[in-house]
Design a protein that fits this description.
three-stranded mixed beta sheet; GMP Synthetase, Chain A, domain 3; alpha+beta
Length: 124
């Protein structure tokens, strides 16, 4: 299968997953603010890794809730995507948003003095 088709399917899975997660009634999933950061299907579309990020809630409980709701999520995904094979879903936590916020906090805490502007004026 061509990579551009797999890329389109990954994007469509990611888009549909965001709307499907709003329908999940498991309190471990519905109470935590979960965003889908990426989806990655295998070439034969049998398996898909779903990368998610949660801003609130216990990470282990969220993972258990997503695993418990994976059958419902897969069924809803099958109804909306209309693919010959609906991939089996594996949920993987993505900490890149928290890591980026941490790096941003470090950069904001740096105290930069205006000495650099004085050096530029002397050089002219």
């Amino acid at each position: 299968m061509a990579n551009y088709r797999r890329g389109r399917i990954n994007d469509e899975i990611q888009r549909e997953m965001t709307s499907i997660l709003r329908k999940v009634k498991d309190p471990r999933v519905s109470d935590a603010f979960i965003s889908i950061t990426a989806a990655d299907c295998t070439g034969d579309l049998k398996y898909a890794k779903i990368y998610y990020s949660a801003l609130s809630g216990e990470p282990k409980e969220i993972a258990k809730g997503l695993k418990a709701a994976s059958g419902f999520i897969r069924r809803e995904l099958a109804h909306s995507l209309n693919l010959r094979i609906t991939p089996e879903l594996t949920f993987i936590p993505d900490n890149s948003i928290a890591y980026g916020a941490h790096i941003s906090a470090i950069l904001n805490s740096l105290d930069i003095t205006p000495e650099e502007d004085e050096d530029a004026e002397e050089g002219e």
